[in-house]
Structure formats: structure tokens, C-alpha cells
Design a protein that fits this description.
The protein is mostly helical. Helices cover 80% and strands 0% of the residues. Helix 2 runs parallel beside helix 4. It is elongated. The model has no long low-confidence stretch (mean pLDDT 92).
Length: 119
């Protein structure tokens, strides 16, 4: 069964929605009681960065190749970030993992933005 471009575009849009949802989750985590000021600021900053990067990708969604290694890396890294967020909700000691994996995901997103921007 062949996948047409509208199916691919829909899949890309769903993943972009997940990036926005991750940004919202990071913003919510940043407001959790008991966080250090540094942790709260880092999570808040990452939430803003995810929103900005999601917007940039959305504007270039027609240039994204869903089968590319870069896109697959984004999908995989976002899964890890969201898994870490779930863990941190249950145990705040896991926040450093969220911050670390979110930073990695942002670098993967920046790489794809550079690629699709050059096309």
C-alpha cells in the first residue's frame, strides 16, 4: 500500500502537534512547587524554544521528508523527552533527565531546521 503525500503531511503535522504539547508540558513542569529557580528557568526556557522550533518547522512542513534520518531522530527524541516528563511528574528528582533529553531533542530539531531551510 502506497503512502500518499497527504498521509505523510498529516503524520508530520501530528508530530508537530506533539512538539507543541511537549512545550506545554515543559511549561507546566517549570511551575511545579519545590523546583529550584535554576530548574524552573531552564524548563521554562526550553518550553519557549520548543514552541519557536515547532513554529519554524510548521512553516516548512512541506519541505520535511518524513522518511529522512533527521525526521526519524526528532520523532525518537521526542518520545524520550515525553517519557522523561512522565517520570519527572512522578518523581521530581528526574527533572535533570528531562532537561538533558529536551536539550538533545532541541539540537536534533535545529539540525532539521537547518536542512529544510537550505532546500
Amino acid at each position: 500500500m502506497a503512502i500518499d503525500s497527504s498521509d505523510t503531511l498529516s503524520a508530520i503535522e501530528r508530530q508537530l502537534d506533539k512538539i507543541r504539547s511537549t512545550a506545554d508540558s515543559l511549561g507546566a513542569l517549570s511551575a511545579m512547587p519545590g523546583l529550584s529557580a535554576v530548574q524552573a528557568k531552564k524548563l521554562s526556557d526550553q518550553a519557549v524554544e520548543f514552541r519557536l522550533k515547532q513554529f519554524q518547522l510548521y512553516r516548512k512542513k512541506d519541505r520535511i521528508l518524513a522518511s529522512s534520518n533527521e525526521w526519524k531522530a526528532i520523532v525518537a527524541s521526542m518520545e524520550v523527552v515525553n517519557e522523561r516528563i512522565e517520570r519527572a511528574i512522578e518523581d521530581q528528582r528526574k527533572l535533570s533527565e528531562v532537561i538533558s533529553t529536551a536539550a538533545t531533542a532541541l539540537s536534533v530539531i535545529v539540525r532539521l531546521i537547518g536542512i529544510v531551510g537550505a532546500v
